[in-house]
## 1
Amino acid sequence: MKQYLTTPIYYASGSPHLGHAYTTFVADCYKRYRRLRGDDVLLTSGTDEHGQKIERIAELSGESIGSFIDTHSDEFLNLWKNLDIDVDLFERTSSSTHKELVIDIWQRIRANGDIYKGHYEGLYCVDCEQYFTVGDQCPVHRTPLENFSEESYFFRLSAYQQKLIDHIEANPDFIVPGSRRNEVLSFLKNSELHDLSISRTSTQWGITVPDDPGHVVYVWLDALAAYLSALGGLSSKKLGCYWSNSFHFIGKDILIFHAVYWPAFLWSAGLELPKKIVVNGWLTVEGRKISKSDPETVIDPLSLTDLVGSDGLKYYFLKTVSLGLDLDFRRSHLIDVLNADLANNLGNLFSRFIKLFIKHFPDGLEYSSDNIALVNKDLLQSIRDNANKFATAIERFDLSQAARLFIETAALVNANIQRREPWKIVDRDELGQYLWTLHHCLGYLTLLGASFVPGLTDKARIGLNLDAEPAWTDLYCQRRYVSVRLIGSLFPRIHG
Ligand code: MSP
């Protein structure tokens, strides 16, 4: 099955922080799982480079806008590399493919009669690039709203209100988790959708509206379209293959843009909707959202990676944050969880198993699954049962539950070893059968770990002399001959 996954395209207005990394971890984890299941998956990320906000910040930096956005876009791209995020495509909204696509979409929407020219007067938040109708402060950034008055093109968003409600009601899994779906539904049912201003004259830093050079396309229409341009444009083969099965991974702050504006734009342009929008909550520091506009909250993911590694960081956030909910970050908690789960539980399991195996069977050992004792068959089955629960959790996007099942499975094997005390088994056949079984259990465990701690999993599979590329189907086939080799510590204890 072909599948297309996207992270938001991040503003190239500053350096990436932990909040950006978190959404990307969620998408990366899901991608790795789908690939393990044999799907052909593409993951896109990118940078959002137009609009007044970026123009203003670039001006303040004293750099030319071109080199300013290049610097920050590269920072995001490098971050994904350093965090071992499996990004296939990286789209920048300043690219020429993207510009052409936005113009194409604008023309389709206009041809459909959904664009008209009018005048906008209202309160605007430049950080959100959005008009607000109530209050004098931005509810997200807590900064004063600015009074804007400009000629603008409008999109007939109001015409799509009922269609949006119908779509979300008919497709209960369109927005996950359910709490976020309910939020969008109640927004659509309790407020009247106004037509949306989709051009700006207050800045020239954007994509020029076709036939009206005084206007640039509103950044959100521009940015959302990057999900399509990353695939190469509306008539590209890739888009034809992947778009119909696309999932957007986003933070809750940009839900309305994705769940209301984007579907309406797509319908109007005669294009298919994404299959799913997966919404995460916020990482906070002392209760405040980690955000560039609140510098005290900003944490550089790379500085934490130096301490705990990219696997440690991914695992901690995926396990600790329940999808859709916020998490207040505490460094001491990060270290405690990783020491307990990855250093003690998982790391010790592999090191004591490999040492024991090598001591007794340095040349490997051979059995057939038909000939092993029931107690060993039962152990294998209990790991498979956990793996099935793991799969159900991940398919419901309950990544936290899936991560817990992964580490509980390691604990289950540890407890089994504690109970069976293989170091006391004198019968060589009994010991061989048990170690053969444990080898398979640990191999299965790497299937569960592959989406959360891919680096550790790769190393563990080297220790088990297994193929580098794991596949879910390995759960159901047993190798006769198994062997191990010594590897260093899987996850050294962190002294923070
Ligand atoms: N450029 C727009 C998105 C356009 S998508 C077509 C944008 N960019 S952003 O850089 O401000 O952040 C985008 C995303 O980063 C958020 O939606 C969220 O997924 C992630 N996060 C940013 N701060 C975050 C936290 N503090 N916590 C969790 N995720 C956060 O909005």
## 2
Amino acid sequence: MPTSSISDILRQPKVGDTVTVKGWVRTFRSNRFIALNDGSCQGNLQAVVDFEAFPEALLKRVTTGASLSITGELVASQGAGQTVEIAVQKLEVLGDCPTDSYPLQPKRHSLEFLREIAHLRMRTNTFGAVMRVRHAAAFAVHQFFNDQGFFYLNTPIITASDAEGAGELFRVTTLPADGAPKKEDGTTDFSEDFFEKPTNLTVSGQLEGELGAMALGKIYTFGPTFRAENSNTTRHLSEFWMIEPEMAFFDLHDNMELAEAFCKHIIKYVLTNCQEDLAFLDQRLEQEEKSKPQDQRSGQGLIEKLQFVLDNPFVRCTYTEAIDILKDSKPNKKGQFKYPIEEWGADLQSEHERFLVEKHFKSPVILFDYPAKIKAFYMRLNEDGKTVRAMDVLFPGIGEIVGGSQREERYDVLVEKMQAVGIEPEHLEWYLDTRKFGTCVHSGFGLGFERMVQFVTGMGNIRDVIPFPRTPGNAEF
Ligand code: 4AD
Ligand code: MG
């Protein structure tokens, strides 16, 4: 008999059918009620055993975490909490689970503890919900771009360039760690290395994405990116997934419109398709909030917050306006910012972004037209000669979720900007070629996928929305 998924059974209970289900025991009460979960959904299927009809030795093996195959008839449930249950006719223990050493017991475990057993944590309600929502969000990404005529482009993971120019690179090499070949001047001789030059894991697929846009019109990437920045925060990973659309003939305004529509599509898709998991995560967050001091609570439930973002336009605000707001703000005047805002040109820290979004505008904000000095070399210089057509989308509780810009399409200006930050134009000749051969106005952005998953699940720490987080000092599993 084919195996039925518990999600299908609970969604459309066919009382009277005989089915086979396979899954893991969550609890076994009174030697009679097995709560079985197969990962397909939040809910468990209750299996009812007539213990007199089964050998005691077999029932002893039905422990939390054991995997079972159960065949039986679906019957209307007498008990509260479920409409249907399975009356067990055949019970097989597929894999035993010793109670004394299994770390997941039917009780609350802290997120910190679960991070240490990330190989098992997806079996909990919380991580099951997060991973199913993560899947739905990824599906929504592809759906959105496919519907809008974008092509999914796979850019390389091993590259010889630093797209962001921030130098936070993980080197890729096959040279021995000890005794790498040296040049006469004592530096490493990368001509002996696998690619015959220094290479690294990509920090962004953008530069190659631009090449795609200049041929296919509208493309997007969705892949892992790697940053060796030493940031131990709840918003940073060393390996994270990024979605980077790039569009020919789009200016900064078009780019902002697309970013807003894109964020809203993901949120809407999850709200529509993950109701059961969101309801669970909403409650989880409510519990967590209760343990915080009053002034640190968000005051909005998870689903309420998602609906609010859907229903309201994102505020657009220039960097210059934002600086004025921040300069005049209470926390700035009272010295409550760790980095006080004194003058135009200051880089915005997450405390400033969060003030603008959570206290001042009380809405997602798109900040644009940043000082050229604090942004990457490829951004389009404005006519004022000091700002660039950059944009960041800032979200409540998250801060920066999207970073993007209109790109500098003028060959001479781009070369000048590269030289100003010490990038050799010869090194990026292929990139400059697009500006030589049929250049055009174009734009794009990057959405940090885990930050979006954090937002839609309400999880406070980015390490809890990716199956196996990589952070400084941590590459377990
Ligand atoms: O702002 P970033 O660095 O922009 C770029 O990489 C551009 N090349 C994107 C583009 O225009 N195509 O990164 C984009 C987004 C950020 O807004 C943030 O959401 C996420 O990627 N991000 C991280 N997420 C998790 N951990 C990190 N260490 C991240 N660094 C950036
Ligand atoms: Mg950024």
